[in-house]
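dumping this here before i forget
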Amino acid sequence: MTAPAADGLPPVVAVVGPTATGKTALTVALAQRLGGEVVNADSMQLYRGMDIGTAKPDLVERQGVPHHLLDLWDVREPAAVAVYRDAARAEVDRLRAAGVVPLLVGGSGLYVRAVLDELDFPATDPAVRARLTAELATVGPDELHRRLALVDPAAAAAVLPSNGRRLVRALEVVEITGRPFIASLPQPRPHYPAVSIGLDREPAELDARVATRVDAMWAAGFVTEVQRLAAEGLREGPTASRALGYAQVLQQLDGELSAAEARERTVSTTRRFVRRQRSWFRRDPGVHWFDAARPDLLDAVGAVITDRRIGA
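structure:
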């Protein structure tokens, strides 16, 4: 059992880290050991029908452990961190009140922070945002990413070049505050007592696992999944259409890439994203890091969760 928090309720256990480290398997094993339930914090697994490309755990992988906040949004809807945060906290509150350990798992760092911490984000300026959005439509995300790298290299390293909305927001904050985007983010104040577990692997091993995962996606019918979602409006989705793999297969379906090019770009883009995830999570001094390849991983993580004095 985990130590109770100061309020007498179970703490939240967050399992974070880069893509392809093995977070799902560890979280399910921890849930079985702790009598917990899983709350998804992967932004793309929130979308209905985006299963193969997001490595969304199927019923076999869940091993009977309840999973919450999967398949919430239509692929045409934009991602909304505040909407997710409210839904996730409702699940966490319900589980804690019932004496159940919530296990928050995902590689979307901002989504995890939004649940665990109290964040007051920098103000927005509609005029600045409108101008930057117009520039995005005119010059494209690559140019905005180049500009962000000049004024805020750390933010540029953390944002995918294809993520126009994040690029606009980062440039907006830099212009409004005169400070780097990352530096302008608020210092977190805990909303819940929590233990954060980070999984990582050697870079060469992660690169190989990414390639293996992408091969498995294609073998499992990923292109067919994207074709089906395209018929349901995927191209209209400002967030889902940019997801790793989905964006590349859409380019393949539109004749812009060959099948081999789509696969190779999915691999290379995912590898770059993994490095950005690592950079994001490593900035959090509260994460307990583990090599996901260690043979005693479950016992080692379980010991940290058990021994950690929450709320002390």
